[in-house]
Fold each of these.
Amino acid sequence: MAVRSRKSTSDYGSLYKGHPGQWSWVFHRITGVAVILFLFMHVVDTALVGWGPEAYDKVVRAYANPIVHLLELGLVIAVWYHSVNGTKITLIDFFPRLTTRITALSIGSLVVFLLGAIPITVIMLGQTIDLWRA
Amino acid sequence: MATTTERPATPAPGRDPRDRRLGRERPVGGGELWLWLFMRVSGLLLLVLAMGHLVVMHLFETGAERIDFGFVATRWTSPFWRTWDWMLLMLALVHGINGLRNITLDYVKYPGARLVINVTTYVIGFVLMVLGTVVVVSFDPTKWGPVG
């Protein structure tokens, strides 16, 4: 590898200088951490049903808010991304010959992600607007 | 990018260039290999369990806004949904805690700090598994009146 006399701007754009797969790896980690942190909270709020309607309804009412609803959209998109990319990883790991088709597999998983993400966004933005008007 | 040799042009980082096996690194054996397998198998199950949960609870009708105590009480009259929710709880927690462990092992250098972070997440995970299991199994809405 050539030694550079000074850092070009591209050196700061990305932590890794490799395959586009590095980006899917970064997003996989970010979405994974976001989802598990939400899950920690979600198990506790759901467990409140065991303490009766007063406790449970008071807490879940906090979700009926347009701002929280946008965060919820982010959660669903994060789970969907993590699912699709995780399936891609699993396919590659269980069928190593697929590494020779990595570009097709990456484009394919991006298409599958978008095919899910677009209707999810449309539906949940509609719900958010309804909440805003209510 | 089809090649006739069925071999990537460059070996994976950290791999012996003479190693001609295809694919990514994976643990050679023992507990780490079982965890590696668990992450993939549970991941495929979670694709169905978590996305199914999200579609039913967040996308159908008015989404999560329709969920209240009565909704849960009616839903959990079905052993199917109780089982679904319990499997989702357990698999998601083990999958997520092991994911956090992978990240900790990647970024936290000092063994003491690793231990503290990992044990903390194991304790949180264990407490949530117990809490969730107790509620899913023992929930009886009739304590607060008739269901429906």
Amino acid sequence: MPEGNNQSKSRKAEAILAELEALSAEDLSTLATAVDRELSRRGLDSMAVHANRFLDAIIENIPDMIFVKDARRLAFQRFNRAGEQLLGTSRSQLIGKNDYDFFPKDQAEFFQAKDRATLSSKTLLDILEEPIETKNGLRWLHTKKVPILDENGEPIFLLGISEDITERKAVQAALVRAKEAAEAASRELEAFSYSVAHDLRAPLRAIDGFSQALLEDHGAVLDDEGRGFLNRLRAAAQDMARLIDDLLNLSRMTRSELRRVSVDVSALAQASASRAQQTYPGHVVELSIQAGLFALADAQLLSVVFNNLLANAWKFTRHTRGARIEVGSLHEDNEQVFFVRDNGAGFDMAYAKKLFGVFQRLHTASEFEGSGIGLATVQRVVQRHGGRIWAIGAVGEGATFLFTVSGAGREEAGR
Amino acid sequence: MNDKVILLVEDNPNDEALTLRALKKGHVMNPVVVVRDGAEALDFLFARNAHAGRDRELSLQVILLDLKLPKIDGLDVLKAIRADERTRLLPVVVLTSSAEDQDMVNSYSLGANSYIRKPVDFNQFVEAVRQLGLYWLVLNQTPSRPLAP
């Protein structure tokens, strides 16, 4: 029965609807008012109430503070939940009041000046940062103020949307402070390196120079042992000078700017290999470098990597008959991995992690000379590129150093 | 040529002694005037203050300039030398501990003629000084005129 009833009613409604098209705008408006009045007389929600509830639901659930002020008195007309939470004030206390009722005078003046500016310009005003005193303390807002105009283009309301950026501002400020601290530390390190370069070398020059002077001018009054001691002094001074240079080089790797270009890795490795060969002229090595290797990397820094890795390969194959050194690349998880492989002295995988630490050495100075800074420098360069480096090897069976420079990790800033 | 003076600007007495020894070893026999900070170097060059009474006929062949100096540092001394009509043509060899690129670039861009990093190995130092002497004191030709303030 209700169905039939509904159908007959809807047929009646359809008949009225069919006539609507013929009505003038004025008549339609009158009709709408009449329908609204009839709905509320029967205790039903009017169309305006429906629309309002829909709008309220949206406004209420927006996470930013939303407020509407009337254009004349700038008193609050509407206010949402996020706003209540932000200010710590309920909307019942706010509605009908203005800024002077809640905020310190200078803040209220600021808010209303912006309101008036928005209304008179009739355009959106974007206030990137404004402080606001709330029951929960001082907060910072990013606010947009929008004029709402009537049918004649005159402003009747002011809509405000405010995002609470207090936490974001705090994080940004902390970041700026951290950056400044890091820069200060970096400048300090630079000054330190500089004075290391100058001031630590000067006494070494004196030790070496005067030992030599003693040998030359007074060598006759010393026996062989005495002259031997002086030669040891000189050798030690020169060792320390090399150590200082290596450390400076390591710190330079950290400081210098990273400029990625397309690098001909094969050519670069060949140049490094030639250098290594010059350092060990009598050492015969069977060298193989894969052709056509390229990388997007800092050419100067990458050459430091190959200089070190190939010098090491030459050094640690010095006692190997049929020494072979190979440079190539392979693909692992879509990433290009370069490697330098030798069949030299190798190392115990138990100490693999120690390889890249500053001053860490797996061989005694009498077996293989070195400062223990080279691989630390290599690792620094690779890390600057956002890459990884690792090594595999076994004692007496050679070593393979593998690294990436593609920056799949995060590239590190220089200074 | 031997009467031409070398000006050594060096604050470290050990380095001073070693440089003088290296010059001797490198058979550089020219008289050497040693000044120990940047201000004194400029006083000597421009014959003023403590050096107002120096021999005005004296002819400088080359200046060996350390970078890290008390009072006025080496780069500022170099700048002052190049800025003054009386001294701007003098050969200046920077002789320093520093291997920082920046020091080298600054030295050359301010008009240094050579840049030598003092090696720790004394024999290398002697060799460097010998070559230096050979070039700046024997081979290099400069307009002949006294350094007259």
